[in-house]
Amino acid sequence: MNIRDFEYLNALGKFLNFKKAAQYCNVAQPTLSIQISKLENYLGCFLLERTTRRVNFTPLGLQILEHSQIILREIDEIKTIAQQSTNNNIKTFHIGISDTLPEYFISYITTTIANNEPNFKLNVTIDKPEALFSLLSSMSLNLLVISAAKCPDNFISASLINFPANMQQPSITGNNEHSISTLSTYSEIKSKICFRSGDKNIDNYLHIGYLINDSIDIVSKKQMTY
Predict the structure, then answer these.
(1) Taking a C-beta distance cutoff of 8 angstroms, is the pair 116, 218 a contact?
(2) CATH architecture designation of domain 91-165+185-219
(3) What CATH number was assigned to the domain covering residues 3-85?
């Protein structure tokens, strides 16, 4: 049993299809299938119910899949710690973004941070708010960007400036300047950041919020001149 086994299992959990899972893992389908069978033999139980069209997990398989996902997240965290030890200037943040927010706004947020903070590395998870709150509670995520819905009482939230209608998005320029891209018509979006109380990185999270707010404000003012 090794890390690759967990990656194969996680891919099957994602796609429920051997062909797609193999493509995702960049291996041949027989390789993935054989390795999963070896894992089942090693554990002494069936993880999957195989059909001609679809893969279904057994109840025990679902439990093991959940633990394998936790293991892979911990491995990512170990890699992050190792990377930070070799380059203390790079700060990695695991950010969750609600899937209720439009895709163009999600792109705007990540692009804005990349433009202004090259030393911030973002690992982004997009999911339903309930799932993100659970990951934030378990410390799998550092910070959430969600719609204006209320955060649970055990978290701290800070509102972002409303994303205006007819906002133009910044494109990555390689420096701290914003460039204007194609005009699109949007509805106004209300959102906020959310994080754990007592987190040692609160100042960084608030800084990210300020970056997003400043970007919306600056680009909005530029747009008014057009």
Answers:
(1) no
(2) 3-Layer(aba) Sandwich (3.40)
(3) 1.10.10.10
